[in-house]
Design brief:
alpha+beta, Rossmann fold, five-stranded parallel beta sheet, five-stranded antiparallel beta sheet, 13 helices, disordered C terminus, binds adenosine monophosphate, binds glycine
Length: 450
Amino acid sequence: MNREEKLKVLVVGSGGREHALVWKLKQSPSVTRIFCAPGNGGISTDGDCVPIAADDVDGLAAFAAQEQVHLTVVGPELPLTLGIVDRFEGRGLQVVGPSRRASALEGSKVFAKQFMARHGIPTARFEAFDSYERARRALESRDWQPPLVLKADGLAGGKGVLIPQTRQEAIDALDAVMKERRFGAAGDRVLFEEWLEGEEASCIVLTDGRAICPLAPAQDYKRVFDGDRGPNTGGMGAFSFGGLLGPSLEQTILETIVRPTVEGMRQDGAPYRGFLYAGLMLTSDGPKVLEFNARMGDPECQVILPRLRGDLLELLQATVKGALEEQDAEWSPEAAVTVVLASAGYPDRYETGKPIRGLERIGNGRRAIFHAGTGCTNDGFVTAGGRVLDVTAWSATLQEAIREAYGAAEQIEFEGKHYRRDIGQKGLKKTRSSKEHHADPKAGPPVKRS
Ligand code: AMP
Ligand code: GLY
């Protein structure tokens, strides 16, 4: 790309993932101006926040056209499933993300399961129900004995998955989803799934519809309390290092899951472009898909991007142009950790507007504070969400990155601040047992053509 080119970019969304995208894009020599819609208080220190909601697809398209934005990156799933990519492309605007049809991989769990069945992609056995009575009868049959997994079909903010341990719990779960409509219309159809045992892992790639560029592997922490206890959250932290999965498992995931998914979507007439996130269970039978997301992970993004060497903009432009095959993503051999500082009460009810102190003490080239939910006042930053700050550090070893991140987390203060103390420990266990992470030269697998 012409290095003299000066471009405007737009990031859609308002959390820590979007702050990390803005932070990384700002390092691109070709970017002159970064907008974030709607952004948040902290993001406004790195880019220009625009008060347009992430789901206001028409408003965003009009803004991008008017400002002659060169490239837009979409963070969250909702605008994708609403068709933001189709709308932008319809106006000749470049945008990174899957089309509305392709976003159904995340937007409808039934669609995703039927797609996987059709294309032989390994996943848990399942059955879909759109009638309460049929689902209720299935619970009486031998096919669906607990423990089983019950999922609302549509988007439910990561909360639409229930794992009843007894038949009564299964009936209660079904009642909650289909009768009481706890997740609204998302639960008008439900899925029963075989319960899979194993360790979870995420695999995120960029794809232009053919070529696949795997991103550095990362693992997140979904539960609110240490030791994976308490309710699910949007994510309480994450870590990443080169040898997290190991080259042979990475290859298996690529060959049995990612490539067949990208090819299958193309064959089905809904080519998939953008970030593709496969949530996996590593079973004794090999990796199986638990879910797809049509976007970058949050908070995985916050540990992946600090490890990316080179220009994120070039990768994103190649994704849009179908030229990803010519791009190489290189990864630093360092380990990265992010610790989420949350508001008291999160993931349930929480208060906002609490002054945040100590941010100025963090200055250090190997740390970044990504703002997940903050506001900016004349007196400084205040809390404005359940997840407030993603305190991120990277270093030669995972242990050092953990120490750096927690050192910073302790110095930041706001009323009610709470965070997990064990982020990264699972990774440390792995590095002790494998030693693979030491400056793994294969940390970044090469771009593969599908
Ligand atoms: P999902 O939103 O589909 O990824 O599900 C959320 C969480 O539920 C996953 O991260 C797993 O911990 C769990 N889960 C989902 N599906 C299964 C399954 N078939 N077997 C075991 N656990 C599951
Ligand atoms: N960290 C899980 C997700 O982004 O869905």
